Structures are given as structure tokens and as C-alpha cells.
Amino acid sequence: MTTTGTDRTGTRHEGAGRDAVALLDRAHAVVTPRLRADLATLPAPLRRVAMYHFGWEHADGRPAAGRAGKAVRPALVLASARALGGDPGAAVRAAAAVELVHNFTLLHDDIVDEDRTRRGRPTAWTVFGVPDALVTGDALQALALTVLAAERHPASAPAAARLGACVVELCAGQQADCAFEERHPRDVTLGECLAMAESKTGALLGCACALGALYAGAGEAEVAAMDAFGRQAGLAFQLVDDLIGIWGDPRRTGKPAGADLAAHKKSLPVVAALTSGTAEAAELAELYGRPDLDEKDVARAAGAVERAGGRDWAQAEAADRMARAVHGLSCAVPDLDAAGELLALAEFVTRRNH
Amino acid sequence: MTTTGTDRTGTRHEGAGRDAVALLDRAHAVVTPRLRADLATLPAPLRRVAMYHFGWEHADGRPAAGRAGKAVRPALVLASARALGGDPGAAVRAAAAVELVHNFTLLHDDIVDEDRTRRGRPTAWTVFGVPDALVTGDALQALALTVLAAERHPASAPAAARLGACVVELCAGQQADCAFEERHPRDVTLGECLAMAESKTGALLGCACALGALYAGAGEAEVAAMDAFGRQAGLAFQLVDDLIGIWGDPRRTGKPAGADLAAHKKSLPVVAALTSGTAEAAELAELYGRPDLDEKDVARAAGAVERAGGRDWAQAEAADRMARAVHGLSCAVPDLDAAGELLALAEFVTRRNH
């Protein structure tokens, strides 16, 4: 078992990291054949886009050796089922359904955000065009809910209802994200941004944990507590991700320092700074008003976010969210030993210095 | 009861039409409160787009007196349940789910096809922007499948699985439609076009009938026969719609004569003409190669389609599809009296001189 806490040694970190990597690899190995079988049922033109998006085919249809993401969500489904005394094997379809939903939102978000690169490759809409990428996203959502509806397990119907409600929340989160970009930075409150991040990132991690609990036959209170665990861990993950987007080591992130600032991204530390009412807030707003920021401007912006308290706030908020996550987990799984895998996964995704 | 056949009197037509209109009005009255309750569960920014799209609100949120479509699909669900001895009241959620799916595809198709008008109003994406219209479509799909998953009826799970598979087929149909527009007209075969129309239009009408049958507790063979009925009637409807798009009376259609030809639409009669290997096929291809067609060109194009046999083919094909539809129906519902409502609906949607 691995431990978590605010004062951990490097060795312990390594241990938890190794555990988490092993869990992710195992989830990936179990869910990939299921996902491939699901995608194989799609009509050829949609399957082609999906296989490319998952990294399993090149644009011309030749097999590719890529791996789609880290399988964090499937790993959470399976580990949640196990933590609540269920058989993770019975939850593999649910794990695949969650991953299908995740990838449907990525396909659509890339269109809406006009993002041209994902996982180091051109996004699907840039390769196959907007119409094909859009309908393939639609088909992946349908496939996710069909996969659950088609199996005969007592948890299937409540899991499908929960996953459907989660999709609505993900849509609301994406809508809010786009709407905030249109508004003046100082008109968006930190509370609105946190709620948006919870919907856009936390909701699906929470749903993954809740589905695992449902497949273990857990009661309503335990399912809700597992949802809270995943949701709060997801928010902590987003805060850490935002911190890395500004202060991450370029050698580790593969992006230049302050990449999110250069892109004028209104990430959580930035919004915290902009809404701080400090002199640095005005400085930052002025910098964000410029169409282009050079290296010196980016360094100035990072300094402004830090002096306005954005960095400290995000770090404290991430710690607070992790504490809430662990509280949710302890409600659902009082036995720390049984909760070990989930703690290792939560620690892994929120540490991110890998 | 109303009768159907190839040699009907005007009076009988009127009778069937009146019956069908009454059925559609009744379905509309029953399903609308359910749909409004479903939309009310959406987060406000998505609900706003959905309420506008359904014609129930103006863009600024004021209530509108509009009516979203003719409720053909909900009427088919309810009439199918009744024809197979079921309680249509138990199938109201399924009828709403089918209508939600229909409207999700309209929202996305309008984006992909860049259509600026629907039901005489600006399309949602032109009013609220592509991101909001796209995520609202996503949310309506999720809502449709959640509505089925959340109810406790033995038909819910098979209905959700069937509706999910239908969405995948609708996506494939839309993808094919877009792909055909990119290809040279003479490279698209009539068989491909018919398959596309079956996926894009027939599949959801078939699914509506199949869902009604499932909620009546029908067996697999009956459900499949009802799907075939709706699917073939849907294809007949598309063929008639395409004929009206070329030769429809402008006073009845509200569109100028030959509107589909002026828009270079590769509708089924046009593709039949283009692939006929006749001299008129070459004439039509030449006309479709021009960026703009004036009134005289449109009349010439209509003449070419007719002389190339496109009009006769479409009329014969529509009659053949209706015959297949009636055959499917008679397999599932041997009692013609019980099948009367469905025949009236099929006749109504394929006549379309109203």
C-alpha cells in the first residue's frame, strides 16, 4: 500500500508513482481490446477517424503504435470497483464507456477550440475535416451509452443514466469555458472558473469512480462519496496542471516556460490574480490585452500572477481539494488498505512531475 | 379506419390526411410536456439554445408560440405501441427520446451543412455561435439516452441500445452525405445514395417504430418488421421530398420552383439522372458544373432530369419502398384495422401535398 500526505519523502513518491503506473498499464491492457472491439462496430468512415484519434492508425489507415492517453479514467473505474469489494472484470465495459465519452469530448473540444495538435499529432478535424470529426464524436457518445445499455448487469441502467447526466455536465463546462473567453477577464469570477473546471474536468473523473462503485453494488451514499472523491481529485489535477502550464519545467513538459501565459489562457491561477484587486492584477490585465507576448512579457506576466497571489492560491486550493477528495474516499472506503490504489492514482495525476 | 392503395379517391386521401393530422396533433400534445420537462433539466446556457431550437423561445429567451416540427417520429412510436397491443402511455418517454435524437442531429447537421435557416427561422448556430449549438446538440443526445436509462421499464435497456445504434447509423448517413458532396457527381452511384438516404432518414423512422414495438412487449421478429416498415416508409418519404424539391408547387412548398436544382443538391432523382448514361446526364452534369443557375437553367436542368428518367425512377422507387413498408407492417401487424393509424401516418408523410 502507498501512503499520501503533505510531507512525503521522495522514496514514497517513487513508490506511489510506480504503483500508479502499474495500475494505469493494467487498466490500459484490459480496456484496449474492449475499446478496439467497440470501434470495430462503427461504419468504416467513422471507424477510420476514431482509430486515428485513439492513436491506433495513421491518417491513411496503416496501423500505428500509439497509445491514447494514460487510461486514467478506466483505471479509476476498475480501482473503484475493487476498492468497494466488486469484481473489476465486471466493470470493463463501464471503463470503456467512460473512455469513449472522454474521447468524444476531445474530438468536439478540438473543433470548438480550433486546437490543431493533440498528443503530439494533428487533431482529427485538421486531418479529416470538421464534418467527419464532428459526427465521429457523436458516434462515440452513442457507442458509450449503447455499450452500457447492451450489457445485462444490474448496474448498467443506473450507470448509463449517470454517464448521460455527466455528458450534460461536460457540455455545460465546455460551454462556460468558451463563454468566459468572450468576456472581459475581470468580469469572470474565480467561483465561476472553479465551477467550470469542476464540470469540464472533475465531473468525468467523479463519474468514473461512481460507475466503479455501482458495478461493485455500492449503495447511494457510497456512490455519491466516490463521485466526490474523483471530482475533487479532478479539480486538484486541473489546478496542478494550470500551475505546470505557467511554472512547469520545459524539459519535463515539452512546452516553453509560461506556454499558457503566451496563449493568453485564463487558467485558474491567472483568474485568481486578475480578480485579486491588486496592482499586479492591472499589470496582468494590461499584458493580456496585448495580441502578442514576447519572452520578457511572459516572464513579467508570471511574476505578476505570483505577486498577486495566484500561485499560492492555486497551490492551497489544490491541497484543499485533495483533502476533500481523501475525505470523500474515506467515507466510501474506510479501510485505507482497500483505498490504496485510488490514493496512488489520485496522487499520481495531481503530482504530474513526470 | 383509413385505407391505402395506389388508386385512391380524393375523398379517401382527405380522410387519411385528417386522421394523420389528428394523430400528429395528439402525439404533439402528449410528448411536448415531456420534452419541456426534459429540457428544463439542462443547465441554463444549453437550455436556452435548445428552447430556441425547438421554437419555444425567442433568441432573447421570451416565450415563442412556435411548434417544433410535425411530431412525426413521436407519433410513429405511439402508434406502433398501440398497433402491437401496448399502452402508448408507457412509450411517451421513448417518443420524447426519439424526438430529442432527431433534434440533436438537426443542430449538428445545420452546423456541418452551414444551413442558415430552419423552419423559417435562423438556425441555432447562426444565433448562438457554433460552440453553443454544438454542445447543446451533444447534450440533447445524452438527454435522449438518459431519459430511457432512467426509467424502469423492461423495454428501456433494449430501446436505449437500439436508439444508440441508430445514432451511429445517422452519423454514418450524414458523413456519407458530406463525402458525396466532395466527389464528382458521376462517381457517386445510385446505390450509395439510396443507402445514404436510408441511414440519414430511414433509420430514425424505423427506430421510432421499433421502439414503439419494444414498449408493447413485441418479440424480435415483430420489432425487426416494424423497423423495416418505418425505414422503408422513411425512404419513400425522402424520394417524394426530393421530387417536391424539383417539381413541387411553389405555392405549396413556399420555395421557388426547382429550389434543389438551383442549390446544386444531389438529390435522388438528380443522381438517378446523372448516372443514367444518357445524353441528358451529360447536359445535367454540365449545368451542375456552373456556379450559378438562372431560372432558365433550372428549367433546363429539371427537363434533363425528367428526360434522363430521374423523375420516373424516383416515383417508381417511392412506390416500391411504400410496398415494402406495407409488407413489413403486415408481418408485424396482420390485423389491418390495428395497422390503420400507421398506414395513415405513412401515407401522410409520403404524400406531402399539404
Structural overview:
The structure is a homodimer of 354-residue chains. In chain A, a hairpin with a 2-residue loop joins β1 (117-118) and β2 (121-122). Mean pLDDT of chain A is 91; it is low at 1-13. The first copy, chain A, is mainly α. In chain A, α1 packs across α3, α2 (44-53) packs across α6 (130-150) and α4 (92-112) runs parallel beside α7. Chain A has a two-stranded antiparallel ribbon. The first copy, chain A, has a single domain (10-351), classed as Orthogonal Bundle (Farnesyl Diphosphate Synthase), CATH 1.10.600. Chain A is globular. Chain A has 16 helices and 2 strands. Helix content of chain A is 73%, strand content 1%. Chain A has helices at 10-40, 44-53, 72-83, 92-112, 124-128, 130-150, 156-182, 190-215, 220-247, 250-253, 259-262, 268-274, 279-288, 295-307, 310-332, 336-351, and strands at 117-118, 121-122. The two termini of chain A are 21 Å apart. Chains A and B meet through α4, α6 and α7 of A and α4, α6 and α7 of B.
